[in-house]
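LAB NOTEBOOK - FOLDING QUEUE
OPERATOR: T.R.
BATCH SIZE: 2
PURPOSE: Compare the predicted structure-token outputs for two unrelated chains run back to back under identical settings.
PRIORITY: normal
REVIEWER: second-year student, initials M.K.

ITEM 1
FIELD SEQUENCE / FIELD STRUCTURE:
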Amino acid sequence: MSRSSRLLPFLFVFLWSTGFVGAKFGLPYAEPLTFLLVRYLLILTLMTPFALATRAPWPSDVRQSVHIGVSGLLVHALYLGGVFMAIKRGLPAGVTALVVGMQPLLTACGAGLVLGERVTLRQWAGLLLGFVGVALVVSDKLGDVPLLGMLLPAFAALCGITLGTLYQKRFCPHFDLRTGSVIQFLPTAVVTALFAWQTESMRIEWTAPFVFALLWLVLVLSFGAISLLNLLIRSGSAVNVASLFYLTPPSTALIAWFVFGETLGGPALAGMALAVGGVYLARARAT
């Protein structure tokens, strides 16, 4: 494996973590599904002509297109919709990250059943160690937050990213990233528009922070991080890819400290170390 290939997972973690920062910047000016709908439409506006201009190959049959579309609904519509709704309802980003950070354990449970992947004892130890680390990182944020009414969309997001990772690895691990993005985001935009029309006012305050957040989420997250995620799913096992999400809460905490001045206590720093160690173990190849 080349040096650049080894760096891709860490670049993915950093870019993925900035999504929470982008949500914090933009959600005060738009409701969550409306915000995401504008994001999806902008992605389609940019990616569709790019795919056509570069003559990117489209799937050879309708069934493959359906599989790619379903994976998009799970990874984008359900996961992102759940995360944005949870944060909008007041669930701290760290707690949201903790809930979604349970994904590697669920993926490890499903990988053997769905994909026939063998999860080694070392990987299980890494996954459990990573979960403990994530819990330590966000434990100071649980405090007095009334969690019950806010956790449902976060758990929906957890189900979306877990099922989406397994589904894509099982049914459509290989597709062109340009045309695949169009196929993934088209049904995602339609479903998100229907739910936004039924449940939200769909008003937007076009402020500078909102525009910045929108462009960041489109260019950096949807083009950069999602492309890296697709590449990682294509080249690695589902458990190895899922284990990277344990690094998201610590990475998000560091970015929030740098951008917003949020401080980190001793338990959070210890949790980061455990999470890094857990990911190292969980990403070990099965033997």
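ITEM 2
FIELD SEQUENCE / FIELD STRUCTURE:
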Amino acid sequence: MSRALLVERPGVHRLVERDVPEPGPGEALVRVAAAGICMSDRELYDGHRDAAYVRYPVVPGHEWAGTVAAVGPGVDPALVGRKAVAEGFRACGACERCRGGETSLCQGGYAETGFTEPGAFADHVTVPARLLHPLHHDADLRAAALLEPAAVIAAAVRAGRPRPGERVAVVGAGTLGLLAVQLLSASSPGDLTVIDPRASRGEQALRFGAGTCLVPDEAEALRGRFDLIVETAGAPSTAAASCLLARRGGRVVLTGMFTPGAVGIDPVHLSLSQLEIRSVFGAPSSAWSDAVRAFGLGLLDPAPLVTHEFPLERFADAIALVGAGDPKTGKVLLRP
């Protein structure tokens, strides 16, 4: 038997048992080792996710790692027994955007593991085998469960094009922000500053490779200083504030998930400062490859971000921690 955490509708969930799924043609069945819970999952559970990006009832879980247990027809049987992660977007692979490598902009319609397709808050998850990224045989699957947010940050780093010696700022020191510090520190910045109102997160950012940590009020004095800003907080004011931190001709990459009512970016400042602004939603296949490679090389170590682990039966306790505001809560995992 195989268990799965089914969210029937906002606020209503139950643990269901089913036969172990059989992978179909082109599919792989993965035994889940660990699955992360993020704010998108909390929004799904609370009913606050845009209706176009969720389909109830659904088994959530888009951040996960596991071991391939079986493969369907047409899939290399050598994958069985391999540790792996998988891309969440079910890109069609055939549209103009996919053919250009922009799989996160697929024109074939939105489909994503854990939101519109059954996810990894379960003993097993079935995914298209073409989306798998095999890991080293000795990979820590607990840490690898965070490779989905790491891939988002890898996409942001690609978009930001950091160069050695540049002044770089990361706005926000949550999971995305701390992963950004690790990846950006590998580009040999001249200055890597993290901005977050939580002192404990700032201290962790220093351990991850940041040179300086500031609270937002302290950062006001550094307006116009940075070559590159990677925004990860998604707070109402952080998109606009990040643009003010950039030097003229600087680059800003927005990765936070903003809600309606966020402070807009001043178009006058944008025009006069000749800023380059990019946004990131999810990650294309190339960014997944970057994140998996960095993880395998030891440049990326998400393990210290994990603070809580729960079995599937304690999903209610786990989801309650996410977004509750306790600065001691980092990444929360479910361990089937």
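REVIEWER COMMENT (ITEM 2): The mean pLDDT is 95.
FOLLOW-UP: none requested
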